[in-house]
Amino acid sequence: MKQETPNVFLFDIEGTTTPIEFVHKVLFPYSDSKFLSFFREQFPEEKRFEEFKTASEKETEFDGPLEKTPESLSRFCSYLVSKDRKLGALKETQGKIWKRGYESGELKSTIFSDVPSFLGKIRNSGKSAAVYSSGSVEAQVLIFRYCEAGDLTPYFRSYFDTEVGGKREPESYLRIADRLGVSPNEIVFFTDIKEEAEAAISVGIRPFLMERPGNVPQGPHSFPTLRTFDDVPPDFLGT
């Protein structure tokens, strides 16, 4: 397959643009501390509760059954967070909780220092940036809107979550390319997970593995690696 000059730079968040420590030591504990009060005020609609209930029936380690009460649902969500589950209903709930935290000023996201300048280079080159993360689109937007570097959302063209499919499934990347209106080989994808890079490259997307502080070491692979976006090949940006 002929390799095209990249036109879209697709970013993972955790371990790529944002330190893993911020997600696991700030965002997750914050949502965990708010589940009960949130559900007492705003219990999920029937469809969302059924999603939680179906998921609970597959979790053999959860001390169930899940009951239709704020207390039981809060306990199940805390369990899901402890297992780093990617359940859509959980991610949606966390997004709503984080929104309140960001808007109240209790939360402010941390972004690696090289991210804003790289996003500026992408925009100045006439190319575009997008996000693909397991967190909900709402949560993605919040991270980039309320960060220490200021509002970075104007730099991004599109946001994708697991509504397009799992991040280790090749078909997800084909759907993203289709929605962006570009060929897969016009996309560069930055991630910290080898299996995600494997799924992306299988459909023609060029992946880079990020070796950020705190990232989990990956198994053997042949993907190009980056410690910072300052090391992205200049020709990718037409310079």
Describe the structure.
Strands 3-2-1-4-5-6 form a six-stranded parallel beta sheet, with helices on both faces. It has two domains: 8-18 and 109-237, HAD superfamily/HAD-like (Rossmann fold); 23-104, Orthogonal Bundle (Transcription Termination Factor Rho, Rna-binding Domain, Chain A, Domain 1). Helix 1 runs antiparallel to helix 3, helix 1 (20-41) crosses helix 4 and helix 4 (88-104) runs parallel beside helix 6 (137-145). The chain has eight helices and six strands. The protein is of the alpha/beta class. The chain has helices at 20-41, 46-56, 70-82, 88-104, 115-124, 137-145, 170-180, 194-201, and strands at residues 8-11, 128-132, 156-160, 187-191, 206-210, 225-226. The two termini are 24 Å apart. Strand 4, helix 8 (194-201) and strand 5 (206-210) form a beta-alpha-beta unit.
- Tell me the series of helices and strands, N- to C-terminal: EHHHHHEHEHEHEE
The class by helix and strand makeup works out as alpha/beta
What about the largest sheet? Answer: 6 strands, parallel
Mean pLDDT metric: 94
Number of domains: 2
Please report the distance between the alpha carbons of the first and last residues. 24 Å
Strand order of the largest sheet: 3-2-1-4-5-6
Shape: globular
Unreliable spans: none
Q: How much of the polypeptide forms β-strand, as a percent range? A: 5-15%
Rounded Rg: 19 Å
Individual helix count: 8
What portion of residues is helical?
40-55%
Find the count of extended strands (DSSP E, 2+ residues).
Answer: 6
User: What is the CATH T-level topology of the largest domain?
Assistant: Rossmann fold
So, the CATH homologous superfamily of the largest domain?
HAD superfamily/HAD-like
The oligomeric status of these chains comes to: single chain
InterPro entries: Enolase-ppase_E1 (IPR023943), HAD-like_sf (IPR036412), HAD-SF_hydro_IA (IPR006439), HAD_sf (IPR023214)
GO biological process, one term: L-methionine salvage from methylthioadenosine
Pfam family, one: Hydrolase
Protein name: Acireductone synthase
